């Protein structure tokens, strides 16, 4: 049986379309490919983004920066000592698993706080530290490996 060039192109296009549709079907139905958002409230987060930019700029103007380091009991977060923090949170986001995300309020002892190693699983985290001092908002973002 002889196949002319028109039939060959039609067979190739059909095979290519079947390949692409199979790939799309498998990527949407397989639980291994999780399609979750970084934030469930992304519209609300987008509205507040300018405030976040301003808070990051405020944090960059500080003489002493926020420091994060591993210690025996977990993670120690040290804040600048030139002002009094009135409120804030430390949020750890794990890009690989949303279930490992957690957030703790800032409770300082000598301008530092300890996050217990019981809360943390070893790996890479996106750390977002937001706080308010002297009626000014600050934010520090970093990637951190525990």
Can you describe this structure?
The protein is elongated, with a radius of gyration of 24 Å. The model has no long low-confidence stretch (mean pLDDT 86). Helices cover 29% and strands 33% of the residues. With 146 residues, the protein is of the alpha+beta class. The longest helix is centred in the N-terminal third of the chain and has 25 residues, at 5-29. It contains 3 helices and 7 strands; from the N terminus they run H-H-H-E-E-E-E-E-E-E. It folds into 2 domains: 1-35; 42-145, Immunoglobulins (Immunoglobulin-like, Sandwich). It has a 4-stranded antiparallel beta sheet with strand order 4-3-6-7. It has a 3-stranded antiparallel beta sheet with strand order 1-2-5, with no helix packed on it. It has helices spanning 5-29, 42-47, 49-60; strands at residues 67-71, 74-78, 85-93, 102-105, 112-116, 124-133, 136-145.
How would the blueprint of this fold be written?
Elements (H helix, E strand, L loop, with lengths): L4 H25 L12 H6 L1 H12 L6 E5 L2 E5 L6 E9 L8 E4 L6 E5 L7 E10 L2 E10 L1
Antiparallel strand pairs: 1-2, 2-5, 3-4, 3-6, 6-7
- List the total number of helices: 3
By CATH's scheme, which homologous superfamily of the largest domain applies? Immunoglobulins
| Shape by Cα distribution | elongated
Biggest beta sheet summary: 4 strands, antiparallel
What's the alpha carbon Rg, rounded to whole Å?
24 Å
Low-pLDDT residue spans:
none
Q: Which CATH architecture of the largest domain is right?
A: Sandwich
**Strand-pairing-aware structural class:** alpha+beta
Q: Please provide the ordered H/E string of secondary-structure elements.
A: HHHEEEEEEE
